[in-house]
Predict the 3D structure of the following.
Amino acid sequence: MNIEKIRERYKDEWLLIRITATDERDQAIQGELILHSKSRDEVYEAQKGLKGDFYITYSGELPKKGFAVAFHE
Amino acid sequence: MSKTIFNPQSPIIEVDIILYGEGGVKRRIKAALDTGATYTMIPWEIAEALGYKPEISKEKVTLITASGVETAPVIEIKKIKFLDENVDNVPVVCHDLPPKSYVVGLLGSSFLKHFKILIDYRKGLLEITRE
């Protein structure tokens, strides 16, 4: 399935997608949804031990309205 | 030169990057492009899935976070790709961002320093060039 269609279907969730097709720039275009979850940690856990090419992303608004972002490290 | 568009109304510039691990394992993650970050940052769990061992890394950094001061390991990722550009042997900090940041990692200076970077907020255009 098209990656963007997966993102649209599972809005506001964390997604784990096995990549099945890429374009000439190696950008992911098709994939198989392995897991969708409201829990990021569940998705992180599920990808452990999986060999191959996987995409981990959040399908919602970045970030939610009313939040500001500051990264410190 | 590689270029992409971004949403200039978004409070962060989100980008897709590809992390390469051992034995052909790849993880594609959504990251925030952060020119103010010294290091690229990825979660510990993803580093391990790629075949790296953050727990035995000798290099550490001190992070000042909302919850206090923490120490995090630095590992060397064999290759990171962003758009059409690759960098080999990139130092990366293993640390989780808060869940509400809604990105998996940060693309920081340990990758970005290899490029000339143009960020045009008026057009929502990002260009990176290796020179």
User: Anything to note?
Assistant: The mean pLDDT of chain A is 88. Helices of chain A lie at 3-9, 40-47. Chain A touches chain B at residues 19, 25-28, 40-41, 44-45, 47-58, 60-64, 67-69, 71-73 (CB under 8 Å). The beta strands of chain A are 14-22, 28-37, 53-58.
